[in-house]
């Protein structure tokens, strides 16, 4: 990864973390000391317990998603980003579909890997025009804009306009839309395509219909990676 991209990503991860902590603090009814203790506890929890932990504190990730005020970046963590990058480097996808790009942190990991490979395209999707402008700026700064095709607007509309097949799909929109969106995306998958979905633990209740659909469908082989926010790793079998 170039040093420009590394520095940009470091800044974007820090910003995202600061925003989430500030929003969580504003929603938490307790002292600063209690808040800091809980934040430390959260970091040491097994990933699969994190969603329930947030929920018992009244701090579910879905609240962050739907809350009013300045839109948060809600970027993937640096660990998840490196996982996305490695998946791209090993799978060598010609076409990646990213559903929910925000200001482009996960997009940068995909595009950086494509730059290393020397070919490929990530189709990014984002509704919020401010985030779209930031994404364009970030991929230009990192020098990977030729690997990114941003479709600004509603993700369902964007998917309905796509054709051909995708080698890799990353789902990271609001968790309660995963299943509907996946069903619309199914026609774009081929045997061997990989579908990754974030927040399987941190938004466990909202993503349950998606998980159940995959588990019960022989066309897919799926497992939840016990890692960071919980990543569903699905391979299209037929
Ligand atoms: C969790 S964030 C994505 C974070 C991003 N993958 C990253 O790592 O930087 C989810 C994004 O989905 C976008 N989103 C939610 N519903 C959408 C829709 N119907 N169409 C397009 N984007 C949508 C939100 O605006 C938000 O930026």
UniProtKB/TrEMBL annotation:
First-tier enzyme category under EC: transferase
Keywords assigned by UniProt, alphabetized: Methyltransferase, S-adenosyl-L-methionine, Transferase
Residues forming coiled coils: none
Enzyme Commission code: 2.1.1.-
Pfam assignment, any one: Methyltransf_24
GO-annotated molecular function: methyltransferase activity
Signal peptide: none
Domain of life of the organism encoding this protein: Bacteria
The keyword Glycoprotein belongs to this UniProt entry's keyword annotation: no
Protein name as it appears in the record: tRNA 5-hydroxyuridine methyltransferase
SUPFAM superfamilies: S-adenosyl-L-methionine-dependent methyltransferases (SSF53335)
Presence of the UniProt keyword Acetylation in the record: no
GO biological process: methylation
Annotated source species: Paraburkholderia gardini
Gene: trmR
